[in-house]
Design a protein that fits this description.
This protein has one domain. The protein contains two helices and seven strands. Strands 1, 2, 3, 4, 5, 6 and 7 form a seven-stranded antiparallel sheet that branches. The longest helix is centred in the N-terminal third of the chain and has 58 residues. It is rod-shaped, with a radius of gyration of 31 Å.
Length: 185
């Protein structure tokens, strides 16, 4: 057998160092791409989860305000009790924190420490007990006095939620109008 044939057989049987290095480099680049995509998916999932919780807290804020208004009317109290101060004035904005336990207090702003919700696995988000959550909620109410029996008086209610996660703060808001329907009873 000639030397050339022997060299050709050895070359055919194995890979060169250069081919191995190129293969390892391609594998490494592929793995880095897969890991970075996976990490990004987990980050997006986390942000989406917080956004979903915030939307639920926003809606819950308005539903609590409606329930308080209805309870006040049924109890023959002024419809705005716990949603404003004792004697509200026309056009004044009141910042309130309120949860389903009936806890209501004034707060100075959405990021006021007393507006921070607490999380308890049994009762979820409220202000009474639990560990501090990343979410803050405030109801911004504005009292309006109507001039006739049809538009007696009402509250503009805006539910606001703020949270900060990974150095990025987010705020969401929704609003509704709550009418004084006590004259309908």
């Amino acid at each position: 057998m000639s030397i050339i044939r022997m060299l050709n057989k050895k070359i055919v049987k194995g890979f060169s160092l250069l081919e191995i290095m190129v293969a390892i480099s391609l594998l490494a680049v592929s793995l880095v791409a897969i890991i970075s995509v996976g990490t990004k998916i987990l980050q997006v999932e986390h942000v989406t989860e917080n956004d979903f919780i915030a939307k639920g807290l926003l809606v819950e804020g308005l539903e609590i305000a409606k329930a308080v208004r209805n309870s006040n009317i049924n109890s023959l109290l002024p419809f705005y009790t716990s949603l404003t101060v004792a004697s509200p004035t026309e056009g004044t904005v009141y910042n309130m924190r309120i949860d389903y336990t009936g806890t209501a207090n004034s707060v100075s702003s959405l990021t006021d420490p007393s507006a921070q919700l607490l999380y308890n696995s049994a009762t979820f988000y409220q202000y009474v007990s639990g560990t501090p959550a990343i979410f803050y909620r405030m109801l911004k109410t504005t009292y309006h006095m109507g001039t006739n029996i049809v538009a007696k008086d009402w509250l503009d209610v805006e539910s606001q939620v703020y949270w900060s996660d990974r150095g990025r703060g987010s705020t969401q808001k929704i609003s509704t109008t709550l009418y004084n329907t006590s004259y309908l009873h």
